[in-house]
Amino acid sequence: MNNQVCIQLAMVTWASAFLLAIILIIAIPAHFCGCNVINHFTCEVQALLKLTGSNTPVRLILGLVIGIFTLPLPFIFILISYTRIVVVMLRIHSAEGRLKVFSTYRSHMTVVTIFYGTAIYMYLDSVKGVPGPG
């Protein structure tokens, strides 16, 4: 990877995070109801959405859309890249070389699956668990 590709990847990441933040600022009302304390280490989107005073469909849809763009979409890209690694791994003729690649691949996929699996479950559970209006 050269410097230009690295800079482009960083710019796309920063721009998408900025756009998601702007969407939140525009879509969420400026007032918050109740306790304005987030009991997390990070100020994540779902926790911020819970601080708003209403359970509007816009809030639920926004949470779902942001959840899709921040979790399953990158997870799919990671799975595609690891699928390509498996294809290359199967072309390696030596068993020792395949074993080295597979051991690294296995540990990486375990970490990625645990991280994204728990985060996706958390987001889907929080969207599902929000009571409707009324």
TrEMBL record:
GO CC field: plasma membrane
Residues annotated as domain G-protein coupled receptors family 1 profile: 1-134
Signal peptide extent: none
Transmembrane intervals: 12-32, 60-82, 103-124
GO biological process, one term: G protein-coupled receptor signaling pathway
Entry keyword Zinc-finger: no
Gene Ontology molecular functions: olfactory receptor activity
InterPro entries membership: GPCR_Rhodpsn_7TM, Olfact_rcpt
Stated name of the protein: Olfactory receptor 13h1-like
Origin species: Lynx pardinus (Iberian lynx)
